[in-house]
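User: structure tokens for Cytosine permease, please.
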Amino acid sequence: MDSSRTDRTASTRAQRAAEATEDFAADRLPPDERRSTLSITLVRMGFTVSATDLLYGMSLGLFFPFWTGVLIAVGSSLVVSVVSILCGLIGQRERITTALGLQAAFGRGGSRLPSLVIALLSAGFVGYSTGITAGVLPGGKDPWLGLVYCVVLSALYTALSIVGFGKGLTWVGRISVPLMLVTVVIAVIAAVDHAGGIGEIVGAEPARAGEATALALFALGVNKWMTGATVTPDITRFGKSRSTVYTTTIAEFMVGNFGFNMLGILLGLGVREADMGEAFGIVGVGALATFAIFVQGFPHEVNNMYAASLAGRTAIDLPRIAVNVIAGVLACGLAYYGLTAGILDAFLTYLGYLGYAIPLIPGILVADYFLLRRGRYDLSEAALAAVNWRAVSAYFAGLGINLILGFGFDDKLWHTLPLTGALLYLLFSLPQWRAAQQARVPAQLPVTEGAR
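Assistant: Done. Predicted tokens:
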């Protein structure tokens, strides 16, 4: 009897824990749960004030002259910003997560596929970023100590993500983002001094000139944050007005993303070293840089883990807390792989593969909401299809086209853009699109005799 009562008590506690950490993953966000623009800005900048953006910027500085690197960083940030704003408006207007938007676009069952893709790739980002962090910590290159770092860091990120937006992401962003900004700026000043001044960096010959094309690195820059742009609704659903979407997107991608790309370009040209830990050591700020990379890991990895848990919950029908743990284990394994395989090359390869699967999802999502649904979702059980085969077909057809473009024609750019998914979905939905267009045009009233 006592054993049975104990089992029921434990089961009840587990159920309460699962419910407490759902963070409105399966429902519209209540209006009184909305947050200030500042809180949302700090959370969103936690995505891009990161070691991955710094590492990408360093690769630009290793491969290209200063102004070429800057143009690539600006262009890729603008493309991602446009996608992020369109997706973010869906979240803010409807007060829903990306996963719920995918249920409306792909159907309840059909949404499992894109949700799983987002969950896996978001967890992958956490993994490679954790590997970057572990690599700059003292002794991180040692296989056993590196493994310990990966396990401990992944556990911390998972625990903070489980807490949710209000108690986890918000406070992590408030503390970590300013610290990371200050410490990295100090490191870059040291790198500029090491190179002999900003003029020397602007005119410097890149260490690995000719090893990559500008188009390929531009596409990687788009790939790098296409997943982040797609999951923008997870955060903008907390916004009080549409202006929050525009303000926080500019902060995330044009200040955070481009800003850290810029700092990375200066480091790459000034130090001419691909390993981030060694680069910081060369300019004499190794300890400071270690602290900076360690600090940035918290907002960046926690935010990506949060996105993975929300999408994964839809994909595999488990409570968010359980998905969080699974994503944490996956991220830990990828972190250790990246750490042992060489983080820069492994990370750039990973970014390259993102371009085939991810951009189709926001393309279909945006086309469905703005062009077919006329900017309004009905999320009732009766209104949601089991599977929207038009969306699923567009995704698989687009994936096939992207693979052919990339591997058959060596395409570097087109397959990384959401346009293929949007165009295919509209092509497969021509009757629905025409009906939506006709519904926008007010009916013409007959002219009466007296009105002539």
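User: Anything notable?

Assistant: Residues 134 and 187 are 19 Å apart (CA to CA).
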